[in-house]
User: Fold this.
Amino acid sequence: MNIAVPSFQTSECRGFYEYWQSLPRHNLAPTSEIFLDASNPRYAPFVYILEFSGSDIVIRLMGTALVERWKADRTGEKFLTTQDAETKKVFLTNCSHIVSMPCGLRATNRFRLSAGQRVSTEAIALPLAPGPGRPQRFVSYSQMFEEPSDEDKVGGWEDVVDHEWIDLGAGVPDYFLTEQKK
Assistant:
């Protein structure tokens, strides 16, 4: 099977994708246990492990660099708590494809900082195969294109600048849901 490599903008995200691809698989994806047991110290500080919990996504693991970036450890908290219901619905729908197909997603996201400045990240989200009786999970890795100052806090997600579904062998969705502006 010949699957195209995503169009990465950062060598870090490309490296994370190659690392994830090197792990043993169960139904096209490594399990959480395999991923955590083979944790790579180069990537671990920038990793989220996110878990579906009913109509929410919960942060199950937040890397130390992300804790520093967001100025808070949000492990165990719901993801996107500051977003409106429509944005959350769009995010949940897109993320559900990652675990259900399974497939990956590469995106450039824009965030606003507490001082009003905007910064962008390249992020990649890849599925983790659920163990028996376990909820669906995925891993996300990201790198910022520009670093905020030490005192500036990342205030919240703003929008997706571009995206690319990643075929892992089961195909990709034929659409990417975006928030409908009123």
